[in-house]
Design goal:
Shape: elongated
Number of domains: 2
Largest sheet: 7 strands, mixed
Number of strands: 11
Oligomer: single chain
CATH class of the largest domain: Alpha Beta
Strand order of the largest sheet: 7-6-5-8-9-11-10
Radius of gyration: 21 Å
Distance between the termini: 59 Å
CATH architecture of the largest domain: 3-Layer(aba) Sandwich
Structural class: alpha/beta
Number of helices: 12
Strand content: 15-25%
CATH superfamily of the largest domain: Vaccinia Virus protein VP39
C-alpha cells in the first residue's frame, strides 16, 4: 500500500483529466486499481493535508489511463473487471462488457417469477461473462441454471465469476452453439434467456473503435439484418421449453416488432415488448403455448 498526500493526488488527478477522457472512466480506474471508491473521492478534497493510501503508484495508474486515451481500449478491459448490478465480474477481451441496460433483463425475470423460492429450471444462451445467469442463480437459490457459450475462454471466465460471486452450485456451464450443448434437456426449461449478437452488418461496420476494435465480433454481429441468431434461438426454443415456458431476448433498438413476429410465427403467446430506461424496446418476451 502506497502513501501520498491528498494534495499531491489532487494535482495528479487534475493533470490526468486535462488529457481528455470522461470522469466516469477515470473514477472507475481509481476504484478498481487504486482502491479509491467514488464515495471517498468526494470527501478527500476536504482534507488536502491528510495522507491517501493507494494500491498502485501514480506512474502505473497514469500508464493505464494513457493506454485508455491513446488506444481507445475500454477501461474495463484494462482493469480486468466490471461492475454489473451488484456483481463484480472478471472480464477480458474474450467477452462482451456487460451493458447497464442489460441489467433490466433480470428485472423482467423478476416480474414473471415473483417468488424467489421458486424452483426454476432456466438456461442462458451465450452467457459471455456469466452476468445474467449468475444474477439469476443468486436471486433464485433453489433453482437450477444452465449457461452456454460457443467460446471455451468465455466459459472459463463465467465459471470463475460464479465461483467468486457465490458458494452455490446451482449453475452449470456448457460449451457449444446456442441450444446444441443442452440437447439432453429438451422440454424441461421453465425459462430461456439470451442477449445474443444482434447488430446488423452495416451498423457493426460503423461502431465506435472502442467497441469494434476490442470487443469480440462474435458477440456483436448478428448477420446481415442482425436477426440471424435470434431466428435460430426462437425456432428451436419450443423443443426445449416446458408448456407455458418463457423466452426472453434482448434485441437491437429497432428490432422488437420483427422479433415479436418471429415469436408469433413459432406459436408463442403473451408476447410483450419491454422498454429500457430510455424508452427503447430493448427486450421481447413470449410464452410457449
Amino acid at each position: 500500500m502506497l502513501c501520498i498526500s491528498v494534495e499531491e493526488f489532487l494535482i495528479w488527478k487534475k493533470k490526468q483529466l486535462s488529457k481528455g477522457g470522461d470522469q466516469q472512466s477515470f473514477t472507475f480506474l481509481l476504484d478498481c486499481m487504486a482502491g479509491i471508491p467514488d464515495s471517498d473521492l468526494k470527501n478527500i478534497s476536504i482534507s488536502p493535508r491528510e495522507s491517501l493510501h493507494l494500491k498502485k503508484n501514480l506512474e502505473f495508474l497514469e500508464s493505464v489511463w494513457d493506454d485508455h486515451l491513446i488506444n481507445s481500449c475500454p477501461i474495463q478491459y484494462l482493469c480486468g473487471i466490471t461492475f454489473w448490478r451488484d456483481l463484480k465480474l472478471k472480464i477480458t477481451n474474450k467477452v462482451l462488457i456487460p451493458r447497464p441496460e442489460t441489467e433490466l433483463i433480470v428485472d423482467v425475470v423478476f416480474n414473471i417469477f415473483r417468488k424467489k423460492s421458486e424452483k426454476l429450471f432456466f438456461a442462458e444462451l451465450g452467457t459471455g461473462s456469466g452476468a445474467i445467469s449468475i444474477a439469476l442463480a443468486l436471486a433464485y437459490p433453489l433453482s437450477e441454471g444452465l449457461a452456454t457459450d460457443i467460446d471455451q475462454d468465455a466459459l472459463e471466465i463465467a465459471t470463475k465469476n460464479f465461483i467468486n460471486s457465490s458458494k452455490q452450485s446451482n449453475l452449470k456451464f456448457y460449451c457449444g452453439n446456442w441450444w446444441s450443448p443442452i440437447e439432453s434437456f429438451k422440454g424441461k426449461l421453465d425459462l430461456a434467456i439470451s442477449n445474443p449478437p444482434y447488430i446488423p452488418r452495416d451498423i457493426y461496420e460503423k461502431l465506435p473503435k472502442e467497441v469494434k476494435n476490442f470487443e469480440p465480433k462474435v458477440a456483436l454481429l448478428g448477420g446481415e439484418d442482425g436477426l440471424k441468431h435470434i431466428r435460430e434461438i426462437i425456432q428451436k426454443a419450443p423443443l426445449f421449453l416446458k408448456e407455458n415456458g418463457w423466452l426472453i431476448l434482448e434485441n437491437h433498438f429497432d428490432q422488437s416488432e420483427k422479433v415479436k413476429q418471429l415469436l408469433i410465427n413459432n406459436k408463442f403467446t403473451s408476447i410483450e415488448i419491454v422498454k429500457d430506461l430510455s424508452g427503447i424496446g430493448r427486450f421481447t418476451i413470449g410464452r410457449y403455448k
